């Protein structure tokens, strides 16, 4: 394992992604993790990330001094380099001008970190402080016009540092530098593979669960599906999955989930048809936050009732993935996600522990595990779908009739996007039933029916998004089909708002 000590830099996750892409397993730990924990993990290398603080400020985050004395190679990046400097007796100073953006640097190719690279290259800089005096035993291995120490090293002690960000795409040779560190300097094998992850995870789960019983709340989303399959591989029939169908799923979705888990994988699968309960609790409620809250609460209630019927449960499976763990900080991460997963509230049933087999994986790795375990592509590459389901896409009060209209319109939209071969290019696309009715004309008749909105976005992180440039002829086919085939709709509009200021969902 390679450890990444996180000083709060915005690129910490990106560093981890890059290391994993090189087939080297890594974990992100808080900067102040104890030295015992580090020793216990027996890392092949340690990376110190960037961070917003400045080392000279009182209260600046420091790692344990012994990190530099373990004989394990260390790579300091940005703040990590300044920290290394100060902690080992060097100095940093405030530059007159912040160095930000693409910057030409001159490398010393005799450094093992820059092995095989040309002297001149472009790097990504973002710093105000710089190393003004090297710690003893160090030498300069890169410079830029404004930064006399753009990289430094003490190869005898296996300590390396760069002021720029090798993990960012703009650092043209950044990946090579990281690989030089991982393979050349740390001696990593680069053999971390999804298949070995599965073997280890299955072995772990088996050892932990022994003869105990395990319960999983399956949503049909990627994370809970893959988590359930892994646990099933490990403990077979001792796993039971509860799938609460709240009646707010897309067309055919519940049947599809049942078919995959019950019939194809032969998993103990309990499908609870709770549509009536959810709809009656939602009757008359138009406020989006109230709707979400009701659905969350009802979900827990239904899940608990079903779980109690099963008798004693020892473990609960959670589909927590790595970004959830990192985003919610350390320590209480699991709790935060379990709330989120089951709709915003803690489950009130007793169990011995939580099993989170995907806790250390990124989303694309979770998908790879799913594929390897034979999960069908329709679930593996499924777009995100909100927990409260179509209830937040029927604006205002949710009724059975409105859900039916939306389901049909949404189905047509998805079908046409698929037919046009666009589904891989658009990150998320769906229909919304606006509560608005407008006047139309059909044949010789006046109509007064609903407006359906189409939403389609392109995004990598779902934090910001562009609206998808769907060709007009595709939009036209969707619109024509919806007004012709879906009773109750006489107008279709396309949402051309970015996020921000809009969100992806309408509620
Ligand atoms: P917004 O609408 O906030 O959505 O731009 C960002 C992404 O999150 C999804 N989303 C949810 N996912 N539970 C979830 O698991 C929810 O309550 C929820 N609400 C929104 C949304 O579909 C989009 O991908």
TrEMBL record:
Superkingdom of origin organism: Bacteria
Keyword Ligase: yes
Binding site residues for ATP: 219-225
GO MF assignments: ATP binding; GMP synthase activity
PROSITE patterns: GATASE_TYPE_1, GMPS_ATP_PPASE
Record-level GO cellular component terms: cytosol
Record: active site: 78 (nucleophile), 165, 167
Domain GMPS ATP-PPase: 192-382
Pathway assignment: Purine metabolism; GMP biosynthesis; GMP from XMP (L-Gln route): step 1/1
Self-association state and partner proteins as the record states: Homodimer.
Protein name: GMP synthase [glutamine-hydrolyzing]
Organism encoding this protein: Caldicoprobacter faecalis
Source taxonomy: Bacteria, Bacillati, Bacillota, Clostridia, Caldicoprobacterales
